[in-house]
Structures are given as C-alpha cells and as structure tokens.
Specification:
alpha+beta; 2 domains; 6-stranded mixed barrel; Cathepsin D, subunit A, domain 1
Length: about 140
Amino acid sequence: MSSRLASNNVYSVLHPEKLGNKLNSINTTERVKDIQCTLQLLREVWLKVGLEKLESHEGIAVKALLDSRVTDLFMDMTFAKEKGFKMEKLKKPLLVRNVDRMANAGGAIMHQVKCNMFFKGHMERARMDVCNLGKTELILGML
C-alpha cells in the first residue's frame, strides 16, 4: 500500500501516533464522529420477511430486527393481536431477562405463535415467543 493511500485512510484517526505532523492538518473530531455514526447504524439489521398464519394461510409482510444477542424468535403482543395470530398458552411461563440480566418489565412470556416465515424464497416453520417489544414487531435471534 502506498503511503499516499495510508495517509488518507479515514480510520487512521483512531491511531493519532501514526499521523505524525499531519494531525493538525485534518479535523480528527469530525472524522471520528463520522465513523461512530456509521458503526452505530451497522448495529441494527432489519429484514423484510413474510409471515403466514397456519390456520388461514393469510400472508403478512413485516419488518423484523435481526439481533445476534438474542437466542430465540419473538413477536410483539400488540402486533400478534392486531394481525389475528392464534396464540397458544404455554404450559409454564418463560422468564425474560434483559441484556443486563435484570427481569424484563413486560413480565414472563405466557404465549407463543406458530407460523410460516418467508425470506428471499426460503420458507421455514417458526415458533415465536409473544411478549411486549414496544415499536418492534419481530425480533429474529441468531439461533
């Protein structure tokens, strides 16, 4: 790699010692903010998926959050009720813990929904735990 390319590398602001005398010639604060904004946006991955009710075969398009920190599939309670998904009561409630290991304010999971989920030509039978997700309709954990 030529030194000209290396000196124009936007990530070089993370290592000021490599910039030498050029440190005063660029606005490092602005570049760091640009990088932080970009990294913030990459933390959320949204997918448009299709859901099919098993009973009526009605299809619903929905925006789902893909989250690698989550270990299961979740559907928002309000969304499930509004769209008329058949909710099955669980034999035993599932306790929900947040990332900080504290109990979720929404309480235990009492119901689940079974449906077919479609993404780019792939179909899979899905079992989703129903809970309060706020403005997010679906969360797809990385199983």
